[in-house]
Amino acid sequence: MLLEDAGISNFQCARAPARECLFSRFAKDALVFVAFDSKSGERKELFRVGDPDWQQYNWSLRPDGKMLVLAKKMRASTSTEIKLVHLNGGAERVIPIKDWAGIGTIDWAADGKSMWASAIVRGESRAMLNIDLQGNAKAVLQENKPYVGWAIPSQDGKRLAIWEASGGSNVWMLEGH
After folding, report:
1. pLDDT digits over 49-91, tens only?
2. Where in the sequence is the domain holding 15, given as residue range(s)?
3. What distance in Å separates the CA atoms of residue 71 and residue 92, rounded to the nearest whole number?
């Protein structure tokens, strides 16, 4: 066993040659982010998110391990935004996402220059977005039903695994974005 902790909500590791690994855990009044060594399990608390909706955050570690993107789950806040947090102590940046009512999941693109996010349009339509670092969002898949969830890119960025609550099992290939 590498590590064990109560309330782990997510964990991710950067891609080689980077070595950063993180997990988040639910504490009494905050979402706690902890760096850990993937060989020894040694850990160090990095920071806490303690705003009133701390249990509603989804996050993803950029492939180079230098930055986190955080988003509150759908309908958890009145404005749709993402937060970029530099793990080397840089300033946090909040980026508004216009024309979208909420973000459900968020994952970095393979190149670390944009993110994939499931979102809801004002109304009930749902979409898979590609969001650049300036907050420009482009819908690449939009449907009324079923619910579109997470999107995990292949390391080369040529394929994207998308979870969709359809009751079926299908694989789609996306040649680029």
Report:
1. 888 777 788 899 999 999 999 998 765 456 788 999 999 887 8
2. 8-165
3. 13
The predicted model scores a pTM of 0.83
- Alpha-carbon distance of 169 to 177, in angstroms, equals 23
The beta strands (E) that lie in the chain are given as 8-13, 21-26, 31-36, 43-49, 57-61, 67-72, 81-86, 93-96, 100-108, 114-121, 126-132, 137-143, 147-153, 160-165
37 located within any domain: yes
Q: What is the pLDDT of residue 95?
A: 93
* Alpha carbon distance 62, 69 (integer Å): 8
Rounded CA separation 4/119 (Å)? 32
CA distance 106 to 113: 13
Tell whether 175 is covered by a domain. no
* Unique residue bearing structure tokens 């902890």: 34
- Name the 3-class secondary structure at 32: strand
